[in-house]
Write a structure and sequence with these properties.
Elements: H1 3-22, H2 29-35, E1 45-47, H3 60-76, E2 80-84, E3 87-91, E4 100-104, E5 108-112
Parallel strand pairs: 1-2, 2-4, 3-5
Length: 116
Amino acid sequence: MKKATFIALLLWAGCSSLVNAQNNPWLKADSIVNQIKAPEFKNQDFDISKYGAKQGAQYLNANTQAIAKAIDVCNKKGGGRVVIPTGEWYTGPITLKSNVNLHLSDGAVLKFSNNP
């Protein structure tokens, strides 16, 4: 290999590494992490049991509606926590809204239906 060709290959390899380093998302990770801020929610709670939720598999549909109602009211009042109390709560799908923190109390379990 000629000396000029060898030098050209070294320069190309060096430039290639520099370009790849600039486009490497992992090198931007610290900058991205530093921009993340924990969400803040209003200091008000919406307990699903006050919207008709009850423990037990037979209340799956009622609980799904109660959780949806609590989320809706929470959102309309500017946000806060929708609280799932201690116990086993059966539900269908849950759709969250802005400014709503779905909070499971210690010992709370949400059991989702597998029936689409």
